[in-house]
Amino acid sequence: MEQAKKKFKMPSAYVIIFIVLIVVVVLTYFIPVSVRDPQTGDVVYNATFDADGQIVENAGPQPQGLWDVLMAPVEGFQRSSGVGIALLVVGGFLSVMTATGALEAGIGRLLKKLKGGMLIAIMNLAFALMGTVFGFWEEILPFSLVVIPMFVLAGYDVMTGIGVLFVGATVGNMAAVVNPFATGAAVGAIGDPNLTIGSGIVLRIVLFAIMYIISTVMLMRYGARVRKNPETSALAHIEGVKTSVDGEKKELPAMTPVRFASAIIFMVMVAILMIGYIPWESLGGEAAGNAVNAIGIGLSKVPILGDILGAGNATPLGDWGFNEFSVLFFAGALILMAINRMKIDDFIKNFLDGAKDLLGVVLILAIANGIAIVMGSSTQGMSVTLVYWISNGLAQVPLWIFAVVAVASYLLIGLALQSTSGVAGLSMPILSAVASALFATSAIGAVGGEIVLISSFTVGLNFMTLIYPGAVNLGTAEMYGVPYNSYLKFVLKYGVPMLVVSTVVIALAPYIGLVF
User: Fold this and answer.
1) Are 438 and 394 in contact (CB under 8 A)?
2) Is 6 a member of any domain?
């Protein structure tokens, strides 16, 4: 009897990214290093800096070995510490928030109060906001136990609930306005001190608004058609479709005053986060910055209270980065503990459990930054050589084509790797250098090119996540007896228009003032 052939299993993100690190180290034996002349800004091919900062030509390759492979993640961890801490803190906050039951209670209250098309519009916005703030995706499975049965009870079909969950989350994930696991990871992997998670936030807000409008209008039309005539459902002639697990609707936690207060705290935090990252002075000058920060400026002048609060030391809204992100979510977790009267031991356990769940993402970022270190910086190393070769090939290409090609590239990358942080670590050190070089002499500059690249990354990769047969997609479809091909056909009707319009907006963004 012949032994059954083993099926190929895709390696984990950790294995893939470490293999890439080894490949990059091997390339150091073959690819010469180059430098960017600090005086002229031009690339000097096959050159390096000596101890005195002078350019030495004909330097050739600079091989690295086992020590460098092992040291790269360590140095990468140090380099990505700001991003890593932010990820651990937000993981802890979300775990504490989940323990309060406020998120599920809030969603349940919306489902009970809103009727008709407004139910779809509000729920689509809720999941889009969760996607754009913290990358809502794996949470779809547990949320589906509440959302899908409630949509069915409201007169819709199972596919309406699936659409609101998956399409809504994809709107947020593709825009990734302040998502630390996508935009934040990309910024961290690029490592440009002039680039923050707030850079390009206007472009990302525009993308969010456009995709939300497209998806909401289409979902409302579908829902209205199904309520009027169930035979028009995408699942009308499919047997075995289930409205809930074991035919029973999951009970929602009650919306108590404490849970309501917790939900308000979360919404206020999201608002503060958005305000903190919008570059107010760039948009409206010093007057706009002072107006937004009026409360903080006023508190800093109040005797004793201002000192106790540390108002004078707080980072102004509009200049926020990962440190402020961490502070906000840590403070939010402490407030949730206080108003929910959570025991300190329970709080610590919940917080650490949430942080522990994201430790793997932090490790991926560490290795990713190690790759960037081996590749070199924007001024010297193998990375400058690669930029030199690629930029020579793309020197005469219109800038808008770069955005289109970048989105297409991330669609292909998404077939092999679904981890946003992992993909950011693999691609950003190389493509960000290409983007910087291409856009350096344009009106938006090198940082503008990096902004275009980041939005291309979040749009392309997260569209592929929507259609990729992963655990969340397949698990949810199986749970409700929905054939995967029916799921795929349905979500493509919504995802493709969002992808096309978003790509066009990103390509035109440098020309219409959306990148700054």
Assistant:
1) yes
2) no
- CA atoms in the 13 A half-sphere facing the CB of 467: 19
The pTM of the whole model exceeds 0.70? no
Over the stretch 86-128, which tens digit does the pLDDT of each residue have? Answer: 878 888 898 898 889 887 787 677 667 776 688 899 889 989 9
* Helix or strand holding residue 380 (H, E): strand 380-381
Residues in CB range of 294: below 8 A, 6 or more apart: none
| Residue 137 DSSP symbol | -
Work out how many domains the chain is built from and give that number.
1
Q: Which residue range(s) make up the domain with 471? A: 81-239+342-511
Low-confidence spans in the chain with pLDDT less than 70: 1-13, 41, 107, 110-111, 115-116, 142, 145, 244-252, 279, 282-283, 378, 387, 390-397, 416-418, 426
Nearest CA among 407, 435, 413 for reference residue 500: 407
Closest CA relative to residue 387, chosen from 22, 29, 44: 44
User: Residue 288 has which token pair?
Assistant: 């706009």
Q: Count of H helices and E strands in the chain?
A: 22, 5
299 and 311 Cβ atoms separated by less than 8 Å = yes
Residue 46 lies in a domain: no
96 in any annotated domain: yes
Task: Give the helix/strand (H/E) hosting 423.
Answer: helix 420-439
The DSSP string of 204-265 is HHHHHHHHHHHHHHHHHHHHHHHHH-GGGSTTTT-TT--SSGGG-PPPPPP--HHHHHHHHH
Residue 253 lies in a domain: no
